[in-house]
Amino acid sequence: MGRLGFGESDHCDLGLGRGGGCRGRGDASGRRFGAHMPKWAEISAGGWQLNGVVTHQSGDPLTWGNILFQGDIHTIALSSDQRSVDEWFNVNAGFVRSSSLQLASNLRTFPLRLAGVRGDGQNMVNLSAIKFFAITEKVKFQFRAEAYNSFNHPNLTDPNVSVTSTAFGTITAQNGGPRSFQIAGKITF
């Protein structure tokens, strides 16, 4: 093969005298992968469209009401290995939990939100597989299978931040639901 002029390229020539990148250019012609499958394999395995949506969000900062706190705010956050649904943050960090000691009106000194104390993050993977089947030239059937929360990851709600509640610091519910599947068909004509 001679040298190529300016503006020309040969995507099969790897340079350094090695060449051999496209042996006969058989698959470099733009044909689909599996273009010569048997009819039964094309019907069952060919032409699928696969989709996925991954959602990953950090948790919201917790919003505290008008509470009394007599401690160090740096001791409220727990590390991820210490957190559980039974104690999402350190409930013994200095919160005044008695309802008789809560004030009706006062100057607020405790911050509304703390950057290091957040709810659980949201993680979800949704997957789908879609295929069109030609019934006639003008009539087509679409088969669709979808899986929501495919890996069944629990997404927890924010913990209870009402200091006088017996559930203070605990998480008692989930956002969203468990893994679910949906299968649908559609005829277009």
Describe the fold and architecture.
The chain is mainly beta and 189 residues long. The protein has one domain. The chain is 4% helix and 28% strand. It is built from 1 helix and 8 strands; from the N terminus they run αββββββββ. The strands form 3 sheets. The protein has a 4-stranded antiparallel sheet, with no helix packed on it. A hairpin with a 5-residue loop joins strand 4 (122-134) and strand 5 (140-148). The longest helix has 7 residues, at 39-45. It is rod-shaped and about 75 Å long. Residues 23-27 have low confidence and may be disordered.
Q: Give the strand order, joined by hyphens, for the main sheet.
A: 1-4-5-8
As a whole number of angstroms, the C-alpha radius of gyration is: 30 Å
Envelope shape: rod-shaped
The overall strand count is: 8
Mean pLDDT: 82
Distance from first to last alpha carbon:
53 Å
Q: How would you sum up the major sheet?
A: 4 strands, antiparallel
Low-confidence region ranges: 23-27
Q: Helix-strand pattern, N to C? A: HEEEEEEEE
Number of helices, counting only DSSP H or I runs of 4 residues or more: 1
Secondary-structure-based class equals: mainly beta
* Percent of sequence in beta strands: 25-35%
